[in-house]
Design a protein that fits this description.
alpha/beta; globular; 318 residues; two-stranded antiparallel ribbon; binds guanosine-5'-triphosphate; twelve-stranded mixed sheet; binds iron/sulfur cluster; binds S-adenosylmethionine; 11 helices
């Protein structure tokens, strides 16, 4: 297993299979890949099925335990089932999707070996959903979540980005997952680093405070030092990276862009590593290098100057 200079073992990889998307969410960081808008057709620069599989085989050599397929919208890739089928058996495979294409494909993904799925759902209200995603596909997403639960892709985690426009929907989303078997809620702190609009952020500690008041039990996950709240039998996890040194100190993930570049941190684009022609020796070398160069974003790349997080001088020319 590879370990970076800060003692963080790399146990997971997150692969953006495309930067294309059928939604246009107002907050989208697109995993640091830029705009999601553009042609919906497969693009030449995207990694091929074989490239992705070769990368996963090398990740397996390095004892990586889990892969997350994401994007853009990963279900726009028609070879997704094939990629999942060819993922090494030793790796847990999961998917983060906007859910629209889950009806009709969930069963096939299960047959291919997918373990579970996260579906983005920011509200239980079609008008609010449209406002955030710029899409009228609310009913398809609800159907997609049900299809995933029925197919056994559980726990299905509903990803809700908490910001100005959605914060008011938190209580009903908490109730929603408590009432339904197979669902969990992930409240994701809005990250302005790549999306802009810092004024949309809300104080995530207030959300923690509210959840703690409702909770029967509170747990800590080692990964990202995430806090989890059991409320009326439902599980709510908070993903709160912004300005959080503890989160970054427990970050065990390396990312891959749709163009086949390794990336040490979601928030950085100055550490992209090409993998050449994506032969196994090239992938191995680039993987070792990206792990070697990893730093905790908050705490090393961004450092505290009084109460402010400022860019560490060391990385300005990097
Ligand atoms: N800054 C930062 N944000 C992350 C990281 N991991 C997840 N997130 C945020 O959480 C969002 C949802 O992540 P998912 O891939 O659905 O789920 P996850 O909770 O990370 O993974 P699982 O719990 O394994 O399903 C991401 O798109 C990011 O916005 C991370 O390592 N760093
Ligand atoms: C970039 S999307 C890719 C996968 C898929 N299209 C989806 O929406 O689930 C992955 C996750 O990032 C979250 N996300 C996007 N922009 C964000 C931001 N600025 N802050 C926090 N989370 C964000 C989305 O809600 C989604 O759950
Ligand atoms: S569905 Fe996912 S990739 Fe598409 S715009 Fe929304 S958050 Fe971004
Ligand atoms: S170092 Fe921090 S910001 Fe970067 S990917 Fe890991 S947790 Fe996210």
């Amino acid at each position: 297993m590879l370990v970076d200079g800060f003692g963080r073992e790399v146990t997971g990889v997150r692969i953006s299979l495309t930067d294309r998307c059928n939604f246009d969410c107002v907050y989208c960081h697109n995993e640091g890949l830029g705009d999601t808008r553009g042609p919906m057709e497969p693009q030449d620069e995207e990694m091929s099925t074989d490239d992705v599989v070769r990368f996963l085989e090398v990740a397996e050599e390095f004892d990586v335990e889990a892969v997350k397929f994401t994007g853009g919208e990963p279900m726009l890739r028609e070879d997704l089932e094939s990629i999942v089928r060819r993922t090494p058996d030793s790796m847990a495979a999961s998917l983060t999707t906007n859910g629209v294409f889950l009806p009709g494909r969930s069963e096939k993904l299960v047959e291919a070996g997918l373990d579970r799925v996260n579906v983005s759902q920011d509200a239980l209200d079609p008008a609010a959903f449209r406002e955030v995603t710029k899409s009228g596909a609310y009913d398809d997403v609800i159907e997609g979540v049900m299809a995933a639960v029925d197919a056994g892709l559980t726990p299905v985690k509903l990803n809700m980005v908490v910001f100005e426009a959605t914060a008011g929907y938190v209580p009903e989303m908490v109730e929603h997952v408590a009432e339904r078997e197979g669902l969990q809620l992930q409240l994701i702190e809005y990250m302005p680093e790549l999306a802009g609009r810092p004024d949309w952020a809300i104080d995530i500690e207030r959300v923690h405070g509210w959840l703690a008041d409702q909770a029967d039990r509170i747990e800590h996950r080692e990964m990202h030092d995430r806090r989890r709240y059991w409320i009326d039998g439902g599980l709510v996890e908070v993903v709160d990276p912004v300005g959080n040194e503890e989160f970054c100190a427990n970050c065990h993930r390396v990312r891959v862009t749709h163009t086949g570049h390794l990336k040490g941190c979601l928030n950085r684009n100055d550490d992209l590593k090409p993998m050449g022609e994506m032969t196994k020796p090239e992938i191995r070398t680039a993987f070792r290098e990206v792990v070697n160069d990893r730093v905790p974003y908050y705490g090393e790349y961004m450092i505290k100057d009084g109460d402010e997080w400022v860019l560490n001088e060391k990385y300005i020319d990097a």
